[in-house]
Specification:
The protein is mainly alpha-helical. The chain has one domain. The chain has 20 helices and two strands. A two-stranded antiparallel sheet has the order 1-2. Strand 1 and strand 2 form a beta hairpin. The chain is globular.
């Protein structure tokens, strides 16, 4: 494995990451905040180290092997967390490295779990940087799925191709060349962001708040500049706008890109989209009924809060419009299940994702049919596309690892002193990239009370979920470092 190539590419990444800090420094300067110098210093250090690495190892051949691709992907996210933590440390808002790194990784992985006990008095520059890490991380995972994962050939992209090819929305049909495809996805991502900012301002939200919540929505991250999140606004219109954009952001971006050419029919032709839509509608109806007979007197209020929270959790965004930690057990359990499922492949969402769940259900049904017709050849299909056996096997393996790690770390969190609800939900929400959980990490609480060891475990969960499990776990296998 060529370390020089890895350092060369990481240098380029570090340079651009530092540049992304400059708007936050400028914003703090406009508001005459002391944090301006802290953020600017962070930008200089980040870009400076990036330039040094880039120049020192320039001239390297950038064709990378599978192992180098895994290393670059994992180290990029780990390194982004380190440099992203510098503004928090230098400004003094989070003086401890563990807390600052937790907040930074939570941002870049679009998780939205926070250690801040209150965010409303933070400098504008820090709040903007905090939400910008969401937006950068969300765009990063889209570019990763388009540029890096095809090279690596790992399960997530295989699933994406298996589904999209069957309905005519594969990346090669969106644009003939990878660079054009990435550019198109970037424009879609930017367009959705701008559209939401405009819509939120029209609904009465201030321009700064609109940018913060748009970044958190499109990246399905969930950082807000209000302690009680979207509940602060008490506005059904604002909640409706954010709900729509959360739904869109957890939809396969290939569909958004291809709809420009083929129209809205592209969505309905996609079997994963139909499953994703059906899952959310079913969950909304069930949760709304549960809320109607236990908390709210009005069916309208029940559907209002149920729809926002179901979409928020299933899309792995994590905004809250109500304290769902006080909801009935059925509704809470339904939200935990949605944390584990997540949204669509090819989106900024996390968790297991709908496509894998579909393949598991189809495999289960196939086994039932085999009991009746043991000699029958029964292919698994998505639309008209027959799914290769190795793709189904990959989905089963991924889900098994995901669930096994989920229970193992949940057990470890209980050993550290957390109650079982807080332990399970903290792991589910960080692995799924959701943000708020239940218990001591509920929607109106934070992760500041988690022990330091527990925070490191949850940081691992955030990285693991964002990097599709295999990309990070493979670094811990002896065979990866041999040869």
């Amino acid at each position: 494995m060529r370390v020089k190539v890895i350092l060369y590419l990481l240098g380029a990444f570090g340079f651009f990451l530092g540049l992304f800090m400059l708007p936050s420094a400028a914003l703090s300067l406009i508001y005459h905040e002391k944090a301006a110098m802290a953020i600017f210093s962070s930008a200089i250090i980040t870009s400076g180290i990036g330039v040094i690495l880039f120049i020192a190892f320039s001239g390297q051949k950038t064709e990378i092997s599978h192992r180098e691709g895994f290393a670059i992907t994992a180290i990029t996210w780990i390194g982004a967390g380190f440099f992203g933590a510098l503004p928090y440390i230098f400004s003094g808002v989070l003086p401890g490295f563990v807390d600052a790194y937790f907040e930074s990784v939570s941002g870049f992985t679009t998780t939205g779990a926070s250690v801040f006990k209150s965010v409303e008095n933070l400098p504008h520059g820090i709040l903007f940087w905090r939400s910008l890490t969401h937006w950068i991380g969300g765009m990063g995972i889209i570019l990763l799925s388009m540029a890096i994962l095809p090279l690596l050939g790992i399960g997530g992209m295989q699933l994406y191709r298996a589904e999209s090819t069957g309905v005519g929305v594969s990346s090669d049909k969106i644009a003939p060349r990878l660079v054009e495809t990435i550019k198109l996805f970037g424009l879609v991502y930017l367009g959705i962001t701008i559209a939401e900012i405009v819509a939120l301002i029209w609904a009465g939200m201030g321009s700064f708040d609109a940018m913060i919540h748009a970044f958190g929505t499109v990246a399905t991250g969930g950082f807000s500049n209000k302690d009680i999140s979207v509940e602060y606004y008490h506005s059904p219109l604002i909640e409706s706008i954010i709900t729509i954009f959360m739904f869109l952001s957890a939809t396969n971006f290939a569909l958004h890109a291809n709809v420009l050419r083929q129209g809205p029919k592209v969505y309905w032709k996609n079997s994963e989209f139909r499953f994703y839509l059906g899952l959310q509608l079913t969950a909304i109806i069930l949760v709304a009924m549960n809320l109607r007979f236990s908390i709210y007197d009005s069916i309208v209020s029940s559907f209002r809060y149920a729809s926002f929270q179901v979409v928020s959790i299933n899309s792995c965004t994590g905004f809250s419009s109500a304290d769902f930690a006080k909801w009935p057990s059925f509704s809470q359990f339904a939200l935990v299940i949605l944390m584990l499922v997540g949204g669509s492949t090819g989106s900024t969402t996390g968790a297991i994702k709908c496509l894998r769940i579909m393949l598991l259900l189809k495999q289960g049904y196939k086994e039932l049919r085999h009991l009746i017709h043991p000699h029958a050849i029964i292919p698994i299909k998505l639309g008209d596309k027959v799914i290769p056996t190795e793709v189904v096997t990959g989905a089963i393996g991924f889900t098994f690892l995901y669930i096994a790690i989920f229970f193992t770390i949940s057990l470890a969190m209980t050993f550290l002193g957390l109650d079982i609800v807080s332990a399970i939900s903290s792991v589910a929400t960080t692995m799924g990239g959701v943000g708020p959980g239940l218990g001591i990490v509920g929607p109106l609480s934070n992760f500041s009370e988690i022990p330091y060891i527990g925070k490191w475990l949850l940081i691992f969960c955030m990285l693991l979920g964002r990097l599709e499990v295999y990309t990070l776990l493979i670094l811990f296998t002896p065979i990866f470092w041999k040869g």
